[in-house]
């Protein structure tokens, strides 16, 4: 479990994944060394990682949710192969042990890679749904509730939404893999990985952040916060009630992600609960009673094979 300082540090990094430890330490009223040591311990134990990914919407990329049915004895191998693909953002294994769900990002107008996956000998069936829009403007409240309003204001980067659109360059294509591995990587390391000068990398990284093409996030296991159950929800909602249902779900503390999708369902959500009893109560007393919700399908997430800033 995490203590109060750990929770504050993770909330601070969620606000700005590359915030200097000195700035975080000043806001939290502790020493720089304490903050650096805490992050080093969390990072070194493998339970926390800051990631830097391309904002698909701003880059004009399409996102596809792929649902694959596989031979149970080959689930690990298939999930691992998907995780190694550069176009997958995250890969999860569901509780049945024979189903995998992953998010794939492709250039705008490009199709989901169904043909290649359908030929895989261990994949029995694959379906796709286009993720049309992310419908939450905040992160899961379970990991972003440790700071005061004043501390949040002090740590939040300035709003730069008026910055002109930035076109991706060859340097960006070299930087993003390194940032996906470590969003807090130092400039000398990024320069070595990209094969460019440190000054060019520093300048370009600042441009990517101002344009919001670079999306920094914190990967952390929810069990560290005392939440042991994660669940995928596919919802069929009456179109006229879609906005109301979305706003209600997004405000729930259990909700980590809500998105609009194509297919027989029109919403997908990820909820995180303390235990199975809490999940049952949330589904029966909350989700199923929302006006407009016609059908719900649920699947427990047992593991993530790849988690590059999942919601």
UniProtKB/TrEMBL annotation:
<feature type="domain" description="HTH asnC-type">
    <location>
        <begin position="2"/>
        <end position="62"/>
    </location>
</feature>
<protein>
    <submittedName>
        <fullName>Regulatory protein AsnC</fullName>
    </submittedName>
</protein>
<dbReference type="Pfam" id="PF13404">
    <property type="entry name" value="HTH_AsnC-type"/>
</dbReference>
<dbReference type="InterPro" id="IPR036390">
    <property type="entry name" value="WH_DNA-bd_sf"/>
</dbReference>
<dbReference type="InterPro" id="IPR019888">
    <property type="entry name" value="Tscrpt_reg_AsnC-like"/>
</dbReference>
<dbReference type="InterPro" id="IPR011008">
    <property type="entry name" value="Dimeric_a/b-barrel"/>
</dbReference>
<dbReference type="InterPro" id="IPR036388">
    <property type="entry name" value="WH-like_DNA-bd_sf"/>
</dbReference>
<keyword id="KW-0804">Transcription</keyword>
<dbReference type="InterPro" id="IPR000485">
    <property type="entry name" value="AsnC-type_HTH_dom"/>
</dbReference>
<dbReference type="InterPro" id="IPR019887">
    <property type="entry name" value="Tscrpt_reg_AsnC/Lrp_C"/>
</dbReference>
<keyword id="KW-0805">Transcription regulation</keyword>
<keyword id="KW-0238">DNA-binding</keyword>
<dbReference type="Pfam" id="PF01037">
    <property type="entry name" value="AsnC_trans_reg"/>
</dbReference>
């Amino acid at each position: 479990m995490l203590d109060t300082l750990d929770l504050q540090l993770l909330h601070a990094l969620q606000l700005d994944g590359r915030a200097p430890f000195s700035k975080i330490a000043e806001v939290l009223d502790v020493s720089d060394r304490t903050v650096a040591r805490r992050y080093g311990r969390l990072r070194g134990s493998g339970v926390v990682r800051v990631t830097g990914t391309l904002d698909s919407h701003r880059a004009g990329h399409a996102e596809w949710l792929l649902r694959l049915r596989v031979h149970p004895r080959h689930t690990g191998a298939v999930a691992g192969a998907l995780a190694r693909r550069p176009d997958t953002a995250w890969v999860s294994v569901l509780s049945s042990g024979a189903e995998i769900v992953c998010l794939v990002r492709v250039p705008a107008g490009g199709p989901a890679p169904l043909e290649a996956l359908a030929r895989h000998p261990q994949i029995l069936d694959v379906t796709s749904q286009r993720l049309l829009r992310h419908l939450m403007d905040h992160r899961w409240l379970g990991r972003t509730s440790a700071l005061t309003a004043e501390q949040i204001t002090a740590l939040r980067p300035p709003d730069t939404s008026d910055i002109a659109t930035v076109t991706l360059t060859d340097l960006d294509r070299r930087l993003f893999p390194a940032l996906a591995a470590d969003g807090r990587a130092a400039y000398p390391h990024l320069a070595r990985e990209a094969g460019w000068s440190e000054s060019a990398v520093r300048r370009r990284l600042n441009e990517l952040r101002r344009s919001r093409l670079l999306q920094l996030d914190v990967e952390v296991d929810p069990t560290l916060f005392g939440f042991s159950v994660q669940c995928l929800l596919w919802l069929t909602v009456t179109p006229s009630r879609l906005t109301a249902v979305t706003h209600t779900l997004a405000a729930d503390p259990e909700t980590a992600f809500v998105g609009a999708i194509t297919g027989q369902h029109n919403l997908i959500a990820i909820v995180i609960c303390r235990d199975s009893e809490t999940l049952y109560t949330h589904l029966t007393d909350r989700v199923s009673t929302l006006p407009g919700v016609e059908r719900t399908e649920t699947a427990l997430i047992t593991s993530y094979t790849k988690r590059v800033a999942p919601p």
